[in-house]
User: What shape does this take?
Amino acid sequence: MPDELLAIADELYALSLGDFTPARDARAKALKGSDLAVPVKALKKPSLAAWVVNLLVRREGEQVDRILEVGASLREAQAAMSGDDLRALTRQRRQVTAAITQQARSLASEAGVKVTSAVADQVEATLTAAMLDERCSQAVRSGLLVTALSTTGVGETDLSGAVALPEALGFAARPVEAAPEARPDLRVVPDPERDRKARAAAEAALAEAEQEVADAQAAYDEAVGDVAELEARALQVQSEIDELKRRLAGLEATYEKVDDELGDAEDLRSDAQHALDDATSSRTAAAAVLHRLAPSE
Assistant: This one.
């Protein structure tokens, strides 16, 4: 029964979003009395974001496979990478997932479904999860997603309720071609060198990340040298400031001493001025007396 149920689910989840519920109910009704009726009726309608990812997997399955293979290669490579390398890989993943998300939006638009920015963010998060986590990758490839996925890439992702059936992990959705009048055939041409190209893409991504690390290391080393030079200069300037402070303290002490001596000298000058004034007055008085006593001729 699991294989037969998966086949029915594969057919239903390949339908347009509006056709899913009536088709599911009709299939469950047709199967009434069999062991499949209840599990078919229990199949959940996918969210819009999940439906868009399922559509992408069925329309562009080979391209999705290559992206997932690159994700697997990057997961193996990142185990030995530094923080800077991982940040470079994260930027590259974002570029890839952003591009394929835009393609998924175009597919949905051609199917008559408008995808908002919020839904597109969920689609991109699902594709990112598929590149970061092997089980999420299997869930996406099944084409039986019920909800969008998200993961940090650390620890096991909880996929309960994320796919239509537990057996979906390991199942590959059958491809579905667009109707000729709906859009031009944009399917990826089978590539016999797919594996080699996937490895080459992963190696190129790693080489680019390593170059970014080397450039960042060179910039860091230069910054370290500048900091060391400025620290030495700062110590020199601080030493000169300390010496100037000591000299200033000495000059201030000398100034206070001179100022005290100046006060004493000014007091002595004042006393001398008084003595001079008194002596001058006495001389003037004595001269006057002498003049009066002088004999007249």
Q: What stands out?
A: Residues 138 and 170 are 6 Å apart (CA to CA). Residues 2-190 form one domain. The chain has a mean pLDDT of 85. The first helix runs from residue 2 to 12.
